[in-house]
Design goal:
heterodimer, A: 157 residues, globular, B: 357 residues, mainly beta, 16 strands, 55% strand
């Protein structure tokens, strides 16, 4: 118990220090969701709704930040390498081809994303790392955690 | 703070995180039934350097509706209001009407009237003029009732489709069992098949995961076209075999599309075979709001083929154009083309305003 508390406190210190250096986005899922890591390719395919199911078969309920928000801008630039217009056009194309029944759900805030993800094991949201609380689990991207070198979803790069 | 740090570092979640009973997101945020409505429209001006006067024309008004009826079950309808070529009265036509059950990425079942998966363009763009870069569709994909019929661009039946990861590529596939061709190339057997045999179609597309902007693939369609009573050139059923291949590059700036088809009709009873070919290749390069493009169209119909009528024409066409996207949902396309038909050649110019809302 003591060892775990010390480890967490040290880790929290590392995290806080790393956050001072760079703001980051994180992928959050319900704590019961078994996924702990996604590759950069997986993330791209999930965001583009090429992949619409978790490995276990349940539908991925994707929650995206609002258009024009700094979070959305990072997602577009770092994970998708697309502009907002290109992504809108892409989703319209998927909708028109009958591959998706609707655009992904957009959430106005990290709090709203937490409210859904903390109750739904099939939900996945992208939120500012500074808003993460204990009700959700952070998923590693390409094996890297927030704060680590070459973490994908970093502001300002 | 400590708990948050633990979660963020991938340590096991605390007990408090698991207190709320988990439920599917769809129950927290009900998505069914939902209704998504989009409209696509275009207004054109066209001028041909022959005896046809230049004209403004109202293009298709495409009402696109999709709804998720239940988890994994959705319906799609596409109704187009248009004035057919050579007529003045506007008609409404149900172009697509399909219900889709998709329990997994790897397998979805659709039933209804659909866009035949022949290559890339037909299921990607089809009616919505705002979607593709150029103003008009490739010659091989002309609609059945607008001088087309070279390819069966609509199908009525059942389709199994899906996508899966076959490292290092993403594989998409479709297999259809449909009514197939009607007696005339300009018709689609929507409510009654003209013969009992069904068309079988297969389509596959491959995208390297490292280059998701690239897709290559092909299709094969096998059908028996009904005989045409009263036409001495069509006393028997014709076996149809369509083979196609495509390449699509969709990058932020660069767009390259190319598709080629070989259509073989055979009257087995008389041991007669006719072969026709068609292709198009287009390239575009985006420079900010402006996107210059070029397309080459070529259709070579076997003149002796008894299935195709005069409306399914041979053509060689060059199109040079400029697409401008001044607003995200509005495109202005300006293009010039030169067409060479068996008995004539002419130049043409067109301006199209295409939009979606």
């Amino acid at each position: 118990m003591l060892k775990r508390s010390v480890a967490v406190l040290v880790s929290a210190g590392v995290l806080i220090a790393s956050e001072c250096a760079a703001r980051e986005l994180v992928l959050i899922v319900h704590p019961l969701n078994p996924v702990t890591n996604v590759s950069a390719v997986d993330l791209r395919e999930i965001l583009l709704m090429v992949r619409q199911r978790w490995s276990g078969g349940g539908r991925i309920y994707l929650l995206l930040p609002e258009s024009g928000s700094p979070e959305k801008e990072v997602l577009l630039r770092r994970a998708l390498k697309m502009t907002e217009d290109e992504l809108r056009r892409y989703y319209l194309g998927k909708l028109y081809a009958g591959e998706i029944p609707a655009f992904p759900r957009v959430v106005a805030s990290g709090a709203e994303a937490h409210r859904i993800v903390s109750r739904a094991p099939n939900a996945l949201a992208v939120v500012d790392a500074s808003t993460v609380d204990a009700s959700v689990k952070v998923v590693r991207i390409a094996g890297r955690r927030p704060g680590e070198t070459d973490y994908l979803l970093t502001f300002g790069r | 703070m400590v708990a948050a740090a633990a979660i963020r570092l991938g340590l096991p979640p605390s007990a408090e995180a698991q207190q709320a009973p988990p439920v599917p997101a769809d129950e927290i945020e009900p998505t069914t039934p939902s209704l998504v409505v989009r409209l696509f429209g275009n207004i054109d001006w066209q001028s041909r350097r022959d005896e046809v006067p230049n004209t403004f024309s109202v293009g298709q008004l495409d009402l696109f509706v999709t709804s998720e009826l239940a988890l994994n079950l959705s319906v799609l309808a596409e109704i187009v209001l248009e004035v057919p070529e050579g007529e003045e009265a506007q008609i409404a036509e149900v172009e697509r009407f399909q219900i889709r059950y998709s329990p997994a990425d790897a397998a979805s079942i659709s039933i209804g009237r659909m866009h035949t998966m022949l290559g890339y363009w037909n299921q990607t763009y089809h009616h919505g003029a705002w979607l593709p870069t150029p103003a008009f569709r490739p010659e091989v994909y002309r609609f059945e009732d607008e001088g087309g019929g070279f390819l069966p661009v609509h199908e009525v039946g059942i389709r199994l489709s899906g996508t899966t990861s076959v490292s290092p590529v993403r594989l998409e596939y479709a297999a259809s069992l449909t009514n197939g061709r009607d007696v005339e190339p300009r018709e689609v057997a929507t409510v009654q098949d003209a013969n009992g045999s069904k068309a079988v179609a297969f389509w596959v597309g491959l995208s390297p995961k490292a280059w998701p902007w690239l897709q290559v693939g092909g299709a094969a369609v096998f059908d028996d076209i009904p005989a045409k009573p009263g036409d001495p050139s069509r006393p028997n059923e014709l076996s149809e075999r369509i083979l196609g291949g495509f390449l699509a590059v969709q990058r932020s700036r660069l767009e390259v599309l190319a598709e080629a088809f070989d259509v073989r009709h055979e009257d087995r009873a008389r041991s007669l075979v006719w072969t026709s070919s068609g292709l198009y290749a287009q390239a575009a390069w985006r420079l900010g709001l402006v996107k210059p493009y070029y397309r080459y169209d070529w259709v070579d119909r076997d003149e002796e083929d008894p299935y195709y009528d005069e409306a399914t024409r041979d053509i060689e066409k060059h199109t040079l154009g400029l697409r401008i996207d001044p607003w995200s949902l509005v495109a202005i396309k300006v293009e010039a083309s030169h067409s060479k038909l068996p008995d004539a050649s002419f130049g043409a110019a067109a301006v199209q305003v295409a939009f979606t809302f």
